[in-house]
Amino acid sequence: MKVAVSASGTTLDAAVDPRFGRCSTFLLVEIDDGSYEALDNSSAALAGGAGIQSAQLMARKGVKAVLTGNCGPNAHKTLSAAGIEIFVGCTGTVAEAIERYRQGQLQPAAGANVASHAGMEERRR
């Protein structure tokens, strides 16, 4: 099963990026064998629609769950429509978040936990 983690780098030691749609990298991790692929998030620089575009990319890549810090309403709706579970509030490294997921310590988000365009402020800094 493939899980995507919003990340600030390209390895399992990278920090979980609190932004879903505007993270720099997605790490796509195969839960079964621990293999992973680092995927640049080309949607991060978009003026609008980054969450939707990122969610559509996750669906095209066959992701079944997303681990992230925050997820806005448009991304949440798009991910949910694709049958992808969303886990928000993730912190620490990608490896730590994956391990918490494996151990069943994360709860799926019932809805968005930030407003639309919440990641825009982070991008401007």
What can you tell me about this protein's structure?
By secondary structure, the chain is α/β, with parallel strands linked by helices. The chain has a single domain (2-124), classed as Dinitrogenase iron-molybdenum cofactor biosynthesis domain (Nucleotidyltransferase, domain 5), CATH 3.30.420. It has 4 helices and 5 strands; from the N terminus they run βββαβαβαα. It has helices at residues 50-60, 73-81, 94-102, 120-124; strands at residues 2-7, 25-30, 36-40, 65-67, 85-87. A 5-stranded mixed sheet has the order 3-2-1-4-5, with helices on both faces. The protein is globular and about 35 Å long. The N and C termini lie far apart (35 Å).
Query: What CATH first level would be assigned?
Result: Alpha Beta
Quaternary state reads single chain
What is the count of helical runs?
4
Biggest beta sheet summary: 5 strands, mixed
Regions with little confidence, pLDDT below 50 for 5+ residues: none
Strand content: 15-25%
Q: Key terms for this structure?
A:
alpha/beta, globular, Nucleotidyltransferase, domain 5, 4 helices
Q: Would you summarize the structure shown here?
A:
By secondary structure, the protein is α/β, with parallel strands linked by helices.
Question: What is the secondary structure topology, with strand pairs?
Answer:
Blueprint: E1 2-7, E2 25-30, E3 36-40, H1 50-60, E4 65-67, H2 73-81, E5 85-87, H3 94-102, H4 120-124
Parallel strand pairs: 1-4, 4-5
Antiparallel strand pairs: 1-2, 2-3
Helix pairs in contact: 1-2
